[in-house]
Design a protein that fits this description.
By secondary structure, the chain is mainly beta. 5% of the residues lie in helices and 33% in strands. The strands form three sheets. Strands 1-22-21-18-15-12-9-6-3-23-24 form an eleven-stranded mixed sheet, with no helix packed on it. Strands 2-5-8-11-14-17-20 form a seven-stranded parallel sheet, with no helix packed on it. It starts with a strand and ends with a strand.
Length: 216
């Protein structure tokens, strides 16, 4: 029988999204020294990147995607796809205020070949490889997403647990099954994005950013 996800009370994604919306729109850190983009990555100008963020090679960040390093750095590995209006945020726990003193920053680590679909919200501090967070799905801060997992469209996972490898979470009740085969997640970097402007790094993580054309 499929198991049902158990929900615990943590800072809701709606709270996080509202706080991001209330932030100063003029504070956009794409292109600043705190954002490091590897050679071969594609990050569109219309994305919103704030704080200490590292983006690996062949990772693609679509327009209107948001990556917010609030409570600590975010390190994104190679070959990830972050679609329109997806939100990846390293946020403070519910019981800690952003201006609190002596708060140790925690690094958010995202592996390789993950897909963050349109409108999803990911606060998980540890994500492995080959995962898919589908459209409008939400993954909480205390979740560790291992590898080969799929969080289905509109599913919410706000538990404090490690999600077993190759787990599929689906349906209105967030039922779970384990796949028998490891998924192969691939993507084509330039999908339906004609004439978009982007930033890409010209040689290495620490060299200056330059404009480029994103064509299909």
């Amino acid at each position: 029988m499929p198991s049902r996800a158990v929900h615990t009370r943590h800072r809701s994604s709606s709270d996080v999204i509202e706080r991001v919306k209330m932030a100063d729109p003029n504070v956009k850190q794409t292109g600043q020294k705190s954002v490091k983009i590897a050679a071969g990555a594609v990050v569109c100008v219309e994305s919103d990147i704030r704080g200490d963020v590292t983006i690996g090679a062949r990772t693609v960040v679509h327009p209107k995607a948001r990556i917010i390093a609030e409570a600590g750095p975010i390190v994104i590995g190679e070959g990830n796809l972050i679609e329109e209006q997806a939100l990846i945020i390293n946020s403070y726990p519910e019981n800690i205020l952003p201006d609190a003193e002596d708060v140790e920053p925690k690094t958010m680590s995202i592996g390789i070949n993950n897909v963050f679909e349109v409108g999803c919200v990911s606060q998980a501090l540890k994500i492995g490889d080959n995962n898919v967070i589908e459209s409008k799905a939400e993954v909480g801060r205390n979740v560790i997403l291992s590898s080969g997992c799929i969080v289905g469209a509109c599913c919410q996972v706000n538990t404090c647990e490690v999600i077993q490898e190759n787990t599929v979470i689906y349906g209105s009740e967030c039922l779970r099954r384990v796949q028998t085969e490891r998924p192969q997640v691939t993507h084509t970097p330039c999908v339906s994005a004609e004439d978009k402007q982007c930033y890409s790094d010209s040689s290495s993580l620490h060299t200056s950013l330059k404009r480029c054309s994103w064509t299909s």
